[in-house]
Inverse folding.
């Protein structure tokens, strides 16, 4: 497992001032960009051209989290837009292995996401195709929800499976991550932490990022 990474989600930032909002998190590891299509989740955010503009403007790399249907057809556009990593949801891909390989060929790190009701077991035989597993710790769609502690066993099972296969994948957790919950997820085996409202509602986003990183490493 690598040192903990903090990826603030810009979902609850001020979209009218997105450039400055990206600057506020310059001390983070990556900016987490929640792409929502109004179908896979009941919310709508950015498309590839907005992601491309953010990639050009952001002081740190982009971690694109695609909450979209038809991932097989749509995901490559986000790699081409300049994201460093692209995560699609297992539930939204017809051919996840083929898609993961296409994305890797396009030069990005590839994540695969699991909604709370989706088990990790269908992934176990294909883990080597990915760089990261995203275990959602809320039902995807909105920021500001409460961390689901019931996801901790899934994080643990995922970490055990990665170790047993002698692989080096990251485990990202997303949803309800804040000072009170981050250590639980870290202890279960997560090493990449998305935090939206905790960071963007803080007066000092940089200090919040540092505090979260320290709690995750403890
Ligand atoms: C939820 C998104 C998250 C969200 C996290 O569907 O994937 O990235 O922005 O927000 P918080 O940290 O407020 O739960
Ligand atoms: Zn997300």
């Amino acid at each position: 497992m690598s040192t903990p990474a903090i990826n603030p989600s810009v979902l609850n930032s001020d979209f009218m001032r997105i450039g400055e909002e990206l600057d506020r998190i310059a001390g983070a590891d990556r900016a987490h960009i929640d792409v929502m299509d109004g179908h896979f989740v009941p919310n709508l955010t950015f498309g590839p051209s907005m992601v491309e503009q953010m990639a050009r403007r952001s002081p740190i790399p982009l971690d694109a989290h695609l909450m979209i249907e038809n991932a097989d057809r749509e995901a490559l556009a986000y790699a081409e837009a300049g994201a460093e990593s692209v995560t699609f949801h297992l539930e939204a891909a017809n051919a996840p292995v083929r898609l993961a390989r296409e994305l890797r060929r396009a030069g990005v790190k590839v994540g695969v996401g699991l909604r709370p009701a989706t088990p990790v077991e269908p992934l176990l035989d294909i883990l080597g195709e990915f760089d990261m597993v995203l275990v959602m710790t809320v039902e995807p769609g909105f920021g500001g929800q409460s961390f689901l502690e019931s996801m901790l066993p899934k994080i643990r099972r995922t970490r055990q499976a990665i170790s047993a296969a002698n692989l080096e994948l990251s485990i990202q957790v997303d949803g309800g991550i804040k000072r009170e919950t981050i250590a639980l997820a870290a202890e279960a085996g997560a090493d990449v932490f998305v935090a939206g409202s905790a960071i963007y509602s803080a007066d000092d986003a940089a200090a919040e990022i540092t505090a979260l990183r320290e709690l995750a490493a403890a």
